[in-house]
Amino acid sequence: MSWGRGMGPLMDCLAVAENARSIGCQVAFLCRDRFYEIIKEFDYPIYKVVSPKSPTKLNQSFNTDFPFFQGLGDEKLVKQTIEDEMKAIKNYCPDVVFSWLQFTAYISTKTLGVPLASVGRWTGHPKFTSPMLKGGRFPISATTPLFNQLLKKYNLPSIRDIWELDFIRSDLKIIPGTPELEPGLKELQNSHYVGYLSSGNISKKKLPDRLIDLLPNQHIVFVYLSTKQFLPQDYLPIFKKAFDCSEFKVIVATGLEDMPSRLPTNSTNVQFEHLVSINTLLPKIDIIISTGTRGVSWQAALNGIAHISFPDTDPERYFVASMVERAGAGLTLPDSAFEPKRLLESVRLVYRSRMKEKAKKLGSRLRFLGGPQKTARLLMQKL
Hints:
CATH topology of the largest domain: Rossmann fold
Radius of gyration: 20 Å
Shape: globular
Protein name: Glycosyl transferase family 28 C-terminal domain-containing protein
Order of helices and strands: HEHEHHHEHEHEEHEHEEEHEHEHHH
CATH architecture of the largest domain: 3-Layer(aba) Sandwich
CATH superfamily of the largest domain: Glycogen Phosphorylase B
Strand order of the largest sheet: 9-8-7-10-11-12
């Protein structure tokens, strides 16, 4: 079960699914409609779950109340989601359910008596603190009263805050990190550090020829700004201004969220894409620019790529970007630096640094902990 709006949770779930299938497990997906075509490439059974509308404009709820931003304050949507989950579980009869940011999964699996494994991060723990948050902590989510009503309906224990349903109550906690980076999770029962889950976009689609032509003997910068503080219509022109006359070749991918119907015209130095299968690109990329999501940050480290992050005031992205910067594998910048001149200067600075070497060291530590292969074996133990 993958709930998040962005590609990261889906790629993690796909990596775990592929490894589970390789050791003899049967796997099905429950996901949003925007992900159906991607999942279909891999021939998995797909169960549909209702999709909330994407916000038409950004607001502060995405930093202070992520569950609310995800649409989980909508009673009708949440009830329908639980019904969809239960229908899928009853039909497919899984031995274990794996979830990523699926707050409703605890209700559906506990009600039907199926073990639940969930992705855990320190930033999703109720005790997480951050200088990005007023008072250091997340306020109690506005979605909590609704979920307590539903927990009561299904005879399940109440919660103080909805974040308790992210992974704290799950039977198995899978942590895509290390004990050194996220020591606050070491005391959790049935928790396992696996380093990472997905090391790249595992789509089977080939790169278009125009991107392959960029690769030989070039300085490649890959950009994926995910969701939240930057909107494509705002950031796409900036990269053209920054890199059109530079020594770098830049590939900008918008992803699925807020996808523009038309992309800017490609130039010699800057190529714009909706989605890119980056496995072929990864060995050639020198720098990745992102908003600091865990998935992209770990992809960069696992492939020895220096990373420039723009986490803004997002507590989770700031936490992850800070971890990467402390390891010497990346650079964290404020949104004020997101303009053509500063972007080009920052890329040149990172290119001349030893960050790529430090990224390889961080990536080695993440790989050592087992990744999706270890996760698949842990899930097998629940069968």
